[in-house]
Design goal:
Layout (H helix, E strand, L loop, with lengths): L6 H6 L5 E5 L6 H14 L3 E6 L5 H5 L10 E2 L10 E6 L2 H12 L2 H9 L1 H9 L3 H16 L4 E5 L8 H12 L2 H8 L1 H14 L3 H8 L5 H14 L2 H16 L3 E7 L3 H16 L4 E9 L8 H13 L5 H30 L5 E5 L8 H13 L1
Parallel strand pairs: 1-5, 1-6, 2-4, 2-5, 6-7, 7-8
Antiparallel strand pairs: 3-4
Length: 375
């Protein structure tokens, strides 16, 4: 049987600097990240939460009209934490632009920002959002302004994308590609096609959006300008990877008690172990615990008895049938989680019961935080 995650110990530990909430899409990562940040701030830590969710749900839950690409302090009536709570939402293009301005001189930066090839890859390059999420994390960590940074990872088909993004994006723009594109006369169109056909799928998507003979000139101009800042780009990717593996970082894998989500969570746990990244545990979100000590068979039998009795009690009958359904659902979830625990007995577990409605305010986030601790 797995142990419970000690959420408060994780949030209170002064050595704990980064908590990354990860998992497949639609499992509640954004809400979990926000609830952790609220609880950390109320327990005295200067906390910032970084969300990648474009739906603005985090801003609404925190009582803010909107979030920007830079941290904004949460100050709303009734919220007086011992520490501080700040929040931001990743703007992928602005983060990429800021990175260019930092690494390139003013003239080179202007060349890059106006280049059509850059304008394409900065918004549609596969992996760009994941890389920029990690870039922004690196920026926040480098300022040393925060006691704790809570990260809500990007929604993507694979929950592993953000782990690979720094390496994939820097590898796609490696020295070999630079040599090909900065020497078009030597490489020619064949060289460019060879790069694309060699498996650079991220590059292919960007290329497909640019048509005509201008492609090679734009790409070559981009890479010539980018060459001057390439070393800084890869160095930041390396530092981000080191940050993710440091003892001050913890990963929380968030999953719904469903086969597909737990299968991906299991794969994620194994990948984190293989990458020597510190795992704090699994958050089983939206579970359905049984609220009364009555088996499904007993509940159904009682409902049938009411149907046959002379005194009609439709409400009681409906409640009994709902309870029977709940017991069946809880048993199914327990079997799935037991299977996960059997495969990963070393992974601590927290269960968060499903709420009646969506979380839309600070009280709801506090409630999630309490359930994370008690689960």
């Amino acid at each position: 049987m797995s142990t419970a995650i000690d959420i408060d110990a994780l949030l209170d530990d002064a050595a704990s600097r980064v908590v990354v909430c990860c998992g497949s899409g639609g499992v509640g990562k954004t809400t979990t990240a926000a609830a952790l940040a609220v609880r950390a701030a109320e327990r005295g830590r200067r906390t910032v939460v970084l969300t990648i969710d474009p739906a603005r749900r985090l801003a609404q839950a925190l009582g803010l009209r909107e979030l920007s690409n830079h941290p904004k302090q949460v100050k709303v009536d009734g919220f007086e934490p011992k520490g501080e709570l700040w929040a931001m939402m990743l703007d992928m293009r602005r983060t990429f632009d800021d990175m260019v301005r930092v690494h390139a001189g003013p003239e080179r930066a202007q060349q890059l920002l106006q280049n059509p090839f850059y304008q394409t890859i900065s918004t549609s390059f596969s992996g760009t959002q994941e890389y920029m999420a990690m870039e922004k994390l690196g920026q926040l960590a480098a300022t040393d302004e925060w006691d704790l940074i809570v990260v809500d990872t990007p929604p993507s088909r694979s929950a592993l994308d953000f782990l690979d993004a720094p390496t994939r994006l820097s590898s796609a723009l490696d020295g070999r590609m630079i040599r090909l594109l900065t020497g078009p006369a030597k490489a020619g169109g064949w060289g460019l096609r060879k790069v694309v056909s060699a498996g650079f799928s991220m590059f292919a998507k960007a290329v497909s959006t640019i048509i005509g003979g201008q492609l090679l000139a734009d790409a070559s101009s981009f890479m010539q300008a980018f060459d001057s800042m390439f070393g800084g780009f890869r160095e930041r990717a390396r530092k981000t990877a080191e940050l993710l593996r440091s003892s001050g970082t913890s990963f929380l894998v968030v999953a719904a008690p469903e086969p597909d989500a737990l299968r991906e969570a299991s794969y994620f746990v194994e990948r984190l172990a293989g990458e020597s990244m510190p795992l704090a545990g699994l958050v089983a979100n939206r579970t359905h615990p049984v609220l009364a000590q009555l088996s499904a068979a007993e509940a159904l039998a009682a409902a049938e008895s009411l149907v046959k009795s002379e005194t009609a009690a439709p409400l009681a009958e409906a409640v009994l049938r709902l309870h029977a359904d709940r017991v069946v659902l809880a048993d199914r979830e327990n079997r799935l989680l037991a299977r996960f625990t059997l495969a990963h007995p070393e992974v601590p577990l927290a269960r968060v019961p499903a709420l009646a409605g969506d979380v839309h305010d600070l009280d709801g986030l506090r409630d999630i935080g309490t359930k994370l601790v008690s689960g």
